[in-house]
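Reposting from the mailing list since nobody answered there.

I have sequence plus structure tokens for a pair of proteins and want to know whether others read the tokens the same way I do. The first protein:
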Amino acid sequence: MKDSIITVVGGLTGIIVGLIISATVFGTVRAAPAYEDQKHADAGRAVSEFVQAINMTSAVVNKANQSLALRRILLRYIDLDIIGLYTISSQSTTATEKKAFLGAFKAYFADTYAAKLVKLKLKDFKIVDARKVGKRDILVTTTILTSKGTTKLHWRVRAGKIIDISVAGINLSRTLKNEFSSLLRSGGVNNLIKVLLNKVSSQVSI
């Protein structure tokens, strides 16, 4: 059952990574469209800065330093508190359990996804739209040119931080929630914490 956690990476991340690695890329991150208001502009800027920060790490020669830089980027631009708490929202947890889980989740997420992002160069990445969804969020739609044509990625942004990513109808936070559910059912949040920490290959400063 613990092996099911591996499919989190193989699911949405595998698809996103596969699409971007196969891209035929030219140029850099393109200019964003005119925004409706400052909130929309801030959301677009958060996505652009995230992509540009990832691209900049390609110049880091030392692999350990590059991996550390990518972990810090993930922790800075993605709101892992919101994503993490959503994945265990079906469970009744104490404040202590939530704190312990978020620490494990952030370490696991940063460690796992940084390893995937080392291979990426997100170029010819264009913001095409930003619209309000719900009461607090902005959905930023971007495109990337791949060998099979243009692919859309959607970024949900709240208060200047990314809280979800989706591609081809597959949603990051929902995928994580579904993958964690069996571990939660079998042993509760403490079981999930143990599995996540076992998957962490190096210490991450949160």
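The second protein, same order (residues first, tokens after):
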Amino acid sequence: MMNMYGAILGDIVGSPYEFDCNNYKAKDFPLFRERSEFTDDTVMTLAVAKALLDTRGQTDNAVRAALVREMQRLGMLVDVSHLSDPGFWDVMEIAEKPIFASHSNARDVFFDTRNLTDAQFTAIIKNNGVAGLNLYAGFLGKTADLDTVTRHLEHFLALGGERNLSLGGDWDGCAVLPRGMEGIQDLDRLYEHLLRRNYHEELVR
């Protein structure tokens, strides 16, 4: 019986928890057993590990599909930011409700496999999902500043994603932010920067 891994994003737990993907009811997940405050009504993010969705021939397709559907039935948000490209498309094929990429930028603006392709972001739009801009400089560009963040934003907007964008941050995992920002306390600087670029306040908020 194959053991796979899931991980809570945002350091809710802090490290991957092993679970048996053939036993995918929420009560059987170690993360539910060990964190008793999580219930079936809790909305939380779960990164479906690359191994779960990419490992061809080792895990039954029906099991992978059942896990994603069970997460969505429970109100859990399926987060694709840490998935490989094949893993992303597996989730999109399975998902019956909106998914999200909690902290992912535009690959066409700056190439990194952690960033979304245009096809992936378009799929998120069609799914009524959400992508959160990642403010880690390493995923923005070689000389990242607030203009760089804006380029990623504008690229997604040009694809029709006005209703499908948020700020993802990656505050707990990034060592370097774009020039002009030192921490979450500086989000107002991005807000003001966008207003100066003639973005209307309703969109920015």
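Reply #1 (J.P.):
I read it the same way you do. Residues 134 and 170 are 6 Å apart (CA to CA).
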